[in-house]
Each structure stands twice: as C-alpha cells, then as structure tokens.
Design a protein that fits this description.
Elements lengths: L4 H8 L4 H24 L3 H30 L4
Helix pairs in contact: 2-3
C-alpha cells in the first residue's frame, strides 16, 4: 500500500502530538540561544550549535511522553 507523505504526517499527528512537539522544539531553541548568550557569554555560533542539538533531542523525548499521555493517561479523564 502506497502512503503519501501527507498521510504519514496526519497519522503521526494523532491527538496533536507532532504539532505540539514542533512548537515546543522551536521555542526551546530560541530560549536556549538567548540563555546561553546571556548567562554563559558564549559566541552566537556556539549557542546555535547547542540550541539545535539539545532541543531536538528533548523534542523527541517530549513526543514520546506526549504520545504516551494522549494514549494512556488523557483517555481516562
């Protein structure tokens, strides 16, 4: 069965998990750059490197937790 990219995204976005994860990750990147530059006084390039890698990993973790919550915990409420 041939699945289009749009259909795949719609399946991944069940209960809004993917959209929330993307928004969370973008916000986390912006916050990370600002904090690193203000607190640690690192150059912009270093702040961007950390702000890209770390939030992406957190984004994956958040997606897993959100999917679990949507399937197990929120369904009981």
């Amino acid at each position: 069965m041939k699945t289009t990219f749009l259909e795949l995204l719609q399946r991944l976005n069940s209960h809004g998990s993917l959209l929330r994860t993307i928004i969370y990750t973008i916000g986390h990147m912006c916050i990370a750059v600002c904090c690193l530059m203000a607190i640690a006084n690192v150059p912009f390039s270093v702040a961007m490197t950390d702000a890209i890698v770390e939030p992406i990993l957190n984004g994956f973790w958040y997606y897993i937790l959100d999917r679990y919550w949507a399937s197990r915990v929120a369904g009981r409420a």
